[in-house]
Structure formats: structure tokens, C-alpha cells
């Protein structure tokens, strides 16, 4: 792992929180993500299962976590299974966790080789009469046709134990992960710090004629040198490309007079940041660009202020739509009649602001939040309004990450310049 070690007490605390939500007489199983093939004998970079990491800190493929909340001894409530190292693996794939290292990372004393899982599970299954809680990727945006290890395990277990009761673990994991522990917020802050500092360093590199991928390379160099990686595919979108919400090609030249939208975040210790800034390629906003920019900025700032604990998320988003409607009228992009005649569920601003206001952030960029209807103390959200005017070649989005905290949320990205005058100054040192 590139990141500094995380104290195992975080993962022990997370397991304790889960145990308090579930009956003692049950078994819980989580599987690592698969190594995904690319072509020939290649594989894509491995990314750990977020739920398994949350409960154990383990980031290695083929790992399995087996939990028994009702075990009489606290030391026997968690069993971790890891791949057994051998000389061949060492030569071809390098270091793999041994039992001592796995215990140190996870705080779990019962560490076994993965080949022993079936025997240990069968022994516990004979003792436990309650349900099996099995994990699955139930994210609201999930649309993955590839069968996961968790899914294959669930199907196999149903065949082996047809009379047992199977229950969903995901709702419990989502509820726990939605609200962040203080240590988790510290790790998100680290990802945010790397992201905001890199943004400031990148600004002087932006000039007419520079390729989008050259700017991406500056971000990549800085992230890797700080023990991080990209939290997601970076969006480096100049000119009309900024009106494509998930533009990823990053292969065009930045042109004089255009804007450059950068939607980039660092991932540190599997915790993510998510920043968007829009800047003038030539180092100075045009009058119209600044008008649109300031409109987006006002909606961002007011939406952050309005993100108070206990507020219904639906209400928070509705307030942003009303603010955006007012800004678009001021920009002469929509009329009062458009606002009056809008269709239910589709505000007038949707023509120029067609995506959501923000999302939960944590171990996943679009972090789990199923069933959560209110802004909750300790939850981390992005706030990312935007205005996209393809006919003018203007796409502006601004995004900060916040922690919900009482009547005044904590903005984690105050060090990333937002004021258009400051941005111009930094681009023209």
C-alpha cells in the first residue's frame, strides 16, 4: 500500500458498530473484489471492496471476512482469510500479506489461509442457527453486468444451505458508512489537501496550446508523489467539451478564449476527494464567462450554507433549483414563464443545470447513501452546481466537499481558490 498505515482501532470500531445492529446468532461474510482481466494475460489495477476494507483494512485480492457477533470470546467474533504466500507468488506478483501483517492491519487475531475458509465456515454454520448476512453491491447507481465474488459466494451458499435464511448486509453497511467516523474525515481531509494543493500548482501550467492530457499529467505526477491516485477518471475539459458531463477523452488542445473545466480528486488510503474548478485558458475571464461563473459561485456558496443537519435532502436540492432559476433568468437563458410552466420533477433550470446538486463522498466517490433522506451530522457531501451553455461554448461547474455539522457545514476545500480575481492572479504570476 502506498498510504501510511491506518490504526486498526478504526476497523475494530467499525466491526463493533455493525455487531450492535445485528443479532448475535448470525454469520456475516464479505468477499474481496475480483482481479479484473484486460487483454491477453493482463489485469486492470486492483481496487479493494469498500465494505471489506471498512471492516478490516485489508486491500488484498481473494480475502474473505467472516464475522460471528455472538461468539463467547471477543477474539473469535472475527475471522480473516488471506491468500497463502509462496515462493512462486513472491517471484511473479511480489509481497503478499502473512498472518502477522494481516493481524497488525486489521486488529483481527483469527487469521487463516483462504483455503481453510470452507472448513471454518462449516464448523460455525453448525453452531449458528440464525441467518447468514451476505454482502452485495446495492449502490443506487450500480449497473455492472459482471458477477462479483460476493454474488458467486451467495449462489454457492444457497445451494449448500438451502434451508437457511439469507439476509442483506448492504442496508446496514450503507447506514454505517453514510456517517463518517472522525478518523475517516481525517483521511478524506488528506485526499482533499493533496487535491487542493495540486490545483494551485496546476494553474500556472494552463496556457493556450496546452493539451488537456498534459494538464492531466500534472495532476497525476502530483498525486502519485503524495501517495495518492486518481479517485476517478479525471475530467479535463476545454471549450465545448466542458458541456459533456462525463467527458474523459482529455485529448484536445486548450484554445485561447476558452474555459477549462477540471473535475479531479485524489484518493488517499481508499478515501476520496472530489473537486471541480473552471478557469480561463488565457488567464482572464471574458465578461460573459465571469457573469456565468459568478452565477454558479453564488449557487454553490448558498447551497453550502443551506446544507444544515436535519434538512431533507430533497428540500436542499429544491432550494438550489430555485436559486439556479433566478440566476438563469438574470443571465437571460430562461424566462419567468419557463419557471411557471415547468413540468413536475423537471425544474426550468434543468435545461442548463441537468445533474444533481451533490452526492455522498467517502470510500466511494459516489458513496453509499441508500435510503438516507436527510442531511445527517457527520456525513460528507459534494456540492457541485453548474451551468452549461453549448451554444456559447461555456460549461462551468464548481464543486466543494463539505462535512454536515449542525447549522454550519464544514467546507473542506476553502484552500482551493474560487474567487475569479484570485484565479486570474494565480494564472498570471
In which order are the strands of the major sheet placed? 4-3-2-1-5-6
**Average pLDDT reading:** 96
Q: What is the SS-derived class?
A: alpha+beta
Strand content: 15-25%
CA-to-CA gap between the ends?
37 Å
Please name the CATH architecture of the largest domain: Alpha-Beta Complex
Bulk shape: globular
Query: What's the tally of helices?
Result: 13
Q: Regions with pLDDT < 50 over 5+ consecutive residues?
A: none
Number of strands: 17
* Number of domain units: 2
Radius of gyration: 24 Å
Per CATH, what is the topology of the largest domain? Creatine Amidinohydrolase
Order of helices and strands: HEHEEHHEHEHEHHHEEEEEEHHHEEEEEH
CATH class of the largest domain: Alpha Beta
CATH superfamily of the largest domain: Creatinase/methionine aminopeptidase superfamily
Percent of residues in helical segments? 25-40%
Largest sheet: 6 strands, mixed
What is the structure about, briefly put?
The chain is an alpha+beta fold and 429 residues long. It contains 13 helices and 17 strands.
Keywords:
2 domains, 35% helix, Creatine Amidinohydrolase, Chain A, domain 1, 429 residues, globular, Creatine Amidinohydrolase
Task: Give structural notes.
The chain is an alpha+beta fold and 429 residues long. The chain has two domains: 8-177, Creatinase/prolidase N-terminal domain (Creatine Amidinohydrolase, Chain A, domain 1), CATH 3.40.350; 182-427, Creatinase/methionine aminopeptidase superfamily (Creatine Amidinohydrolase), CATH 3.90.230.10. The chain is 35% helix and 15% strand. It has 13 helices and 17 strands. The strands form five sheets. Strands 4-3-2-1-5-6 form a six-stranded mixed β-sheet, sandwiched between helices. A hairpin with a 2-residue loop joins strand 10 and strand 11. Helix 1 (8-21) packs across helix 2, helix 8 crosses helix 9 and helix 10 (287-305) runs antiparallel to helix 11 (313-330).
